[in-house]
Amino acid sequence: MWSFLSNGVDRLSEWMGHVSAWLIIILIGEVVYDTLVRYLFNAPSGWSYDITYMLYGAAFMGGGAWTLLRDEHVRIDLIYGKISPKSRAIADAIGYVVFFFPSISVLLYFSTKFAIQSWRMLEGSGETVWNPPIYPLKTVLCVTLLILLLQGIVQFVRCIITIKEGGKYLGHQS
Amino acid sequence: HAKTVWTAQSSYPTGLAQIYEPAVRFAERIEKLTDGELVVKMHPGDAIVPSKKVFEAVSLGSLDMGMTWAGWWVGMFNASYLLANAYPDALQMREMLGWIYAGGGMELWNEVYKGHGVKVLPPYAVQGSEILCWSNKPINTLEDFKGLKFRTVGIWGRVLERLGAKVVSLAGGEVYTAMERGVIDALEFNTPRTDKELGLFEIAKFVKLPGIHQPAVPLETLVNEKSWEKLPEHLKIKVEMALRDTCFESMNQILKQDAEAMQFIRNQKGMNVSKLTPEMIKEIVRIGNEELDKDAAKDPVFAKVLKSQRDFRKLVEPYADLIALPYTYAQ
Amino acid sequence: MVTSPEFLVIIMFAGLVIGLSFGFPVPFVMLGISLIVGVLAGEGVGFFSMMVLRMFETMQNYILASIILFIYMGIMLERSGMGDKLFSSCHVLLGRLPGGLALAVLAVCTIMAASTGIMGAPVMIMGMVALPVLLKKGYDPRMSCGIVCAGGTLGILIPPSIMLVVYGPMAGLSVGKLFMGAFLPGLTLSVLYAVYIFVRCTINPELGPPLSLEERNLPFVKKASMALTSMGPPLLLIFSVLGTMFFGIAAPTEAAALGAFASLILTLLYRKLDWKAFKESAYATLRASSMILLIVAAAYIFTGTFMKVGGGELVQNFLLNLSVGRWGVMAIMCFSFFICGFFMEWPGILPILVPIFTPILKKLGFDPIWAAMAFCVCMQTSFLTPPMAPALFYLKGVAPKEVSFVSHICAGVVPFIVIQIIGLGLVLAFPQLTLWLPSVMIK
Ligand code: NA
Ligand code: NA
């Protein structure tokens, strides 16, 4: 049951990461297209500005959970680098309880409220003449936070398993 | 007596005196007026919440008070650019104040934001006309707008597009570099004084007036509804008094400030300052009204505010025109 | 509950130091501490909303998109071998010069500083592309990390610079004058770094070992052709970013996208990009970007927390109550920027200090542009001084596994921080360094 769940979350994070990575390719193409068309044909698009921050914002948030799964968020190895795998698992477990779960849960809860409110008003970006809907991006924030939280829970349980059963704790499964 | 402390934030940085300093003066004054019973801690833009998120911050209680401009909230309320007075041939300063204080404007303003936990108080400052545009290509006829790469937002952008201009959206932090290097041909920001402080005269050769897209700038005062309700009656009155006072003071200072800034801008080597012709203004107003009517057809709240502003003007403008004297010292 | 701002601020920074040193991922420590401090301050819904508003604002920050674009460029430089070839041929050309390769890396950092207005991107690119080459050639890891961090942060001083764009309206100064004013101080720092590297490597060649004999004895023609072929493509890349910006084709973020696109095309031309590699490089860009930008978002929330619980006011009251002479005030002002830099990045420091210092400068008759440059040099160090040291975090994020945070990266930047203090002294002692260029360039 556990392995089914944890694998599921891992795959979800990875999938979201892959999708987000493609947003980067679209981002490059979109900005290059807009710039060249504006310069060569004096025809700037009305949408490039909004699309650019939407793609960028969705991309980096979308990669958060996958980066956590691969343990690629920066750690300072002052003490962490010198202690046993089991002690690392303990340090991480404490970190999840003290830092990660409270803050990500709060962000998730309140960003969901923001997103719901935004959908209710069918809110626009208000940034440009185009004024496109902003609720999709607000929804992206809460969905990516949710998956980040799920991935955090899985990583936390992995810490606990290491503490109880010993063994090599890598902090990640890559 | 119990002391109340409010956290307040502006949407503007400290150096833009016309839009930031009145907010600070309000904070200083209210503390003295109430003998310290109400302390307002005023912060510059971005200190606590992002500058363009002040409405949400006041609504949700991150701030007790926000000193800002309604035009930022067009994503939430289309009518907010009417409240911001940001549309072609909008109200002039005296008419704007008349509408707010005597024409039902204040009530409508609160009605637009109803249900968001926000109380709108009288503006903490009102600026005069903005500069229509800074450009590196001359604009002598409406034809000259064709193909002009113009950085702006809102309904003014829509009007410019109908005039054939190409509206470009850029991040605030990149506008200066982009204008300097010729990525864009024209831009607008605020009044002569503020634009001078931003150094726009260093990157543009042509200045066009009058600021028909923003003939006056009412600066919005927002208060969190719960914070407002908690305030005893005598403090509420003093808050409103202090706001009227700072607004009055700023109105009376800006004419001189903007005139001096304009003189400075005119004196820059190679700078061309000129006005739109009456024919150009007429055509821009015609297009602007068409765009306004389009929005009014889609949004009943918008329509109501627009009608109120138009009705007010139909009443006061013929009279104001009747009594206006020509300016002796203008060319 | 004790909720004086002093207590909360101490909790914030003690918590940050403790949390980070136990190795929990940086962004989550910052977020966690922010929340804990908010709750201790008795804050509620309004505070939590502030956190989300700041998070969302980071997602909407158009200019930060260039971080992703530059990382993509860096990954392409690495994958195509362009970066490796570039630095290797620099090494061959400058092999006789003590620390030659390090000097080449510094030169590239300076060029990159002129093409981006933010700090993260150059540190990441040089961390990915140049640092491995430096280590491979036997350069001292501490010095190598120091160059990448210090050189990479020049981007916020040498125009275009987002920091100066924000500074201008805050102090009522023209951005153009600030840009012009920052140019020479930025270059001066770069030169000072170079002198330091040269002197250290001359005294102790171990730090930057010279070329192997066989490499050194390559015929000149061979060396020249090697340099030409290896420098062409990166030069093309530099043009696609700097050139398009200079000739008014693109705004800075757009120029970064053109650079990313050009690097993709070049890598294709090198035949180093099949479908799998194309996918993998997008994936690697994504993870590096998430790593950086979550820190950016978390640091932004951390700063908001500091202000919300009254930290800004605390600093202001402290500074306003000091009484020292004219130059004493100047010294204290610079020192404040430096100290604040330990705990915050410039976006947090500016709104606290600039509003209180600007009127003081006016009163004491100091030139505001000159003072701004002194402050900006101080703020450049904010990226390098732990515990809030983003440049060091980013480098740690991309550096080879054997690079240690404390003994290589932190230790490595120490001399460069000292050099920055010397640079600050020069800026203060010679106002013309700042004021000359604006006076001749702006009508
Ligand atoms: Na730069
Ligand atoms: Na620091």
Order of helices and strands of chain C: HHHHHHHHHHHHHHHHHHHHH
Q: Structural class of the secondary elements of chain C? A: mainly alpha
| Distinct small-molecule ligands in the complex | sodium ion
Q: How many β-strands of chain B, per DSSP?
A: 11
Layout of helices and strands, plus pairs?
The complex is a heterotrimer of chains A (174), B (331) and C (443).
Chain A: H1 2-41, H2 48-62, H3 64-69, H4 77-80, H5 85-121, H6 135-165
Chain B: E1 4-10, H1 17-33, E2 38-43, H2 54-60, E3 65-68, H3 80-83, H4 93-102, H5 105-112, E4 118-127, E5 133-135, E6 149-151, H6 154-162, E7 166-168, H7 175-181, E8 186-187, H8 192-197, E9 206-209, E10 217-224, H9 225-230, H10 233-266, E11 272-275, H11 278-298, H12 300-323
Helix pairs in contact in B: 1-10, 5-12, 6-11, 11-12
Chain C: H1 5-21, H2 26-40, H3 45-59, H4 65-80, H5 82-93, H6 100-113, H7 120-136, H8 141-152, H9 162-171, H10 175-203, H11 213-216, H12 220-246, H13 252-269, H14 275-308, H15 311-320, H16 326-343, H17 346-364, H18 368-380, H19 390-398, H20 405-429, H21 431-441
Helix pairs in contact in C: 1-2, 2-14, 3-14, 4-7, 4-13, 4-14, 5-6, 5-12, 6-7, 6-8, 6-10, 7-8, 7-19, 8-20, 9-17, 10-18, 10-20, 10-21, 12-13, 14-19, 15-17, 16-17, 16-18, 17-18, 18-20, 20-21
The complex binds sodium ion (2 copies).
One sodium ion binds at residues 113-114, 116-117, 155, 158-161 of chain C.
Question: Could you name the key traits of this structure?
Answer:
heterotrimer, B: alpha/beta, six-stranded mixed β-sheet, C: 443 residues, mainly alpha, globular
